[in-house]
Amino acid sequence: MNAKMQIFIKDMEELLLPKKTYVMDGTQNEAYNLVELAMKSKFDGRFILHELNQTKFPNSYYHRSNPNDVARTEHLTFVCTKSKNFAGLNNNWMHPNLAREKMINLFKGAMQGRTMYVIPFVMGNPDSPYSKNGVQVTDSLYVALSMRIMTRVGNVAIQHIESSNDFFRGIHSVGDVNPNRRFIMHFPESNMVMSFGSGYGGNALLGKKCFSLRIGSYMGLKQNWLAEHMIIIGVQCPNGNILYFLGAFPSACGKTNLALLEPIFKDYKIWTLGDDIAWIHIGSNGKLYAINPEAGFFGVAPGTSIKTNPTMMKTLTNNKFFPTLFTNTAINNIDNTPWWEGMSNIIPQNITDWNGNNVNSNIVSPLAHPNSRFTVSMYNCPTLSKEYNNPHGVPISGIIFGGRRSDTLPLVYEANGWSNGVFLASILGSETTAAASGKIGCVRRDPMAMLPFCGYNMGDYFKHWLNIGKQLQDPPKIFMVNWFRKDQQGNFMWPGYRENFRILKWMIDRIHGNVSAKETAIGLLPIQNTIDTNDLQIDPEVLSKLLLINKDEWRKELMMIEEFYKPFGNTIPNELLTHLNLLKRKLEK
Ligand code: OXD
Ligand code: MN
User: Fold this and answer.
1) What is the pLDDT of residue 1?
2) What is the DSSP letter of 358?
3) What is d(CA 202, CA 193) in angstroms, rounded to the nearest whole number?
4) How far apart are CA 467 and CA 470, in angstroms?
5) For residue 335, how far is its CA from the centre of ligand 2 (angstroms)?
6) pLDDT at residue 439 above 90?
7) Whose CA is nearest to atom 3 of ligand 1?
8) Residue 55: inside a domain, yes or no?
9) CATH code, 90
10) Measured in angstroms, how far is the CA atom of residue 210 from the centroid of ligand 2?
11) Fewer Cβ neighbours under 10 Å: the N or C end of the chain?
12) Is the CB of 72 under 6 A from ligand 1?
C-alpha cells in the first residue's frame, strides 16, 4: 500500500480510535460478507440492512435511516477556502483553520467501539487520464456498501493511488446522527472533506457531491475543465449515428428518467453513460468530451415505474451486480418488496411506511419518503453505453438545461450560441424538491443546476464557463427545457417521461440543421409543426401554450434574475450583463 495512504490510515486511527480497521478490497466475497454483517448488526437502534424478496428483487436489501437524516443539508455544508470571497455568496464559508478545529473536536474518539472502513476509490475509469483517486474512512457500513456501488473501490484504487501518489481524503463518521452536530466541510485547497453526523448519500458518500462536484469544480477551475451536475446520454438515430448530450437539472427533476429514457419512437435508442455527474474536458480537436466519474445510480424512487422508467425497473431487478440498496421506501409486506408512490396505482394491502410503521388501517401519505432512493450499479443497466468506459469520454453535440417551473418557461428553446447559453443557464430557476431539506416548491435560482454543488464563487464559475467556450472549435448547441409547465387548473400540460423524446428529436434536427426555428426575445423557439407529435394526443392549442412567452411572467422573471445577480455585484461577467440587458430590451419591445 502507498506510503501516504498508510500514514493517512494511521492518523485516522489515532484521531478516531476505532476498535478495528478494515481496508476494502472491492472483491465479490467482500460484498457478500459485508451484507451478511449489515443484516446482523444494529446501528441507531435498527438493523443496518434487511433482505428483500430475492426472486422479485434479486440482490436487493433495504435500509431505513434516522428520520432526521433523509436529504442533503445545505445549511450545514461549508466550503472552507482561505478567502471568503473565493467561496462566494453561493457557499456557506468558514476559515479552514476554524473548520478543521471544529471537526477534529467532533471526530476525536468518534469511532470507539466501531469498525473504521477504509475505502480506496477511483472516480472514472482508472485508465482514463481524467480519473481521480480518493480514500474515504467511515464508520458506517451502509456508506461503505454504497460507495462500493457508486465508485470503483478496493484493489484497483490502491494500485492507482500507488502509481499517482496522490488522492483526495474523505473523513466521515455518522457520529450519533444528531443534526446539531452535523457538518459537511469542504477544503478544496487541501483536497479534503470532513463530514460528521449524517449517513445520507449526498452528505456521506464523499466521492459523489463532495468530491466529484464541489472539490471537482474547484479542480476544474484550476485545470481548465468542468465538473457538472449533468447526465450523459447517447441518442442513436435510425441511421445508426449516435449524438451525445449532457443534461443539467436540479435534484429530483427527472435526470435519471431522462438518462434511461426509452424513446417513444422505435427506430431511436438512448444509451446511458451517467445520470448525475459529468467531468468535461476539451479534447485535442477542440471539441468537448465528457466522462461519468461514477459507477452507480443513486436515484429518487418515487415516480419510478414500468410506465415512467421501464429501463430503471429492469435495472433494479437485474442481478448482475451485488448488492442493490433501497433506502427509506415503503415495504410491501405481502411479498417483501420495496414500494413507493407512483410504482403502482394500487397501494398494497399490507404495508410498512418509511418510518417503519405498519399503516394498514391508517394510511397517511406519503408511505415512501419523497426522497427515498435506490443505489444500484451502472452495470445492471440494460442501456449502458459501450462507450461508458471510454477513457477519453464521448464527444458532446448538445447541452440541455432544465428546471421545474409551473409557469413562464416554455417547453423548449435554444440559445443563440455558447455565450448566450451560458447566460440562460446562469439564470436557471427551479421549484425546490425533497432532495434537500427545507421548504419545497418555491422557485430558487439554480445556475447550471450547480447552486448547491459549486465549490467556489458563481461569478468566477460563469467566467470559467465563458472561457471554456472561447477555446472550443465546435461548441455544442445549448437548449433549455421545462417539462413541468402547468395549466390554470394546476395540471401538467406536457405528458413528460417517454414523450420527452419528441423534444430530443427536435434538438437533433436543429443540430443537423434540418429545421429552422423562430427568433424570439428569449432565444430560438420551435416552429410548432417541427415538433414530431405523431401518435401524441395533445391539443395543438395546449402545445402552442407550452411554447408561449408570456411577457408579464417574463417581466417578473427578469426582476427575480436581477435580484439574484445583484448581490454578486461586479463578479458577474460583463458578457452576461450584456445578455441580460439585451433580453430586457427585447422583452420591452
Ligand atoms: C442527488 C442530488 O442525490 O442531486 O443526486 O441530490
Ligand atoms: Mn444530483
Assistant:
1) 85
2) B
3) 13
4) 5
5) 31
6) no
7) 202
8) no
9) 3.40.449.10
10) 11
11) C
12) yes
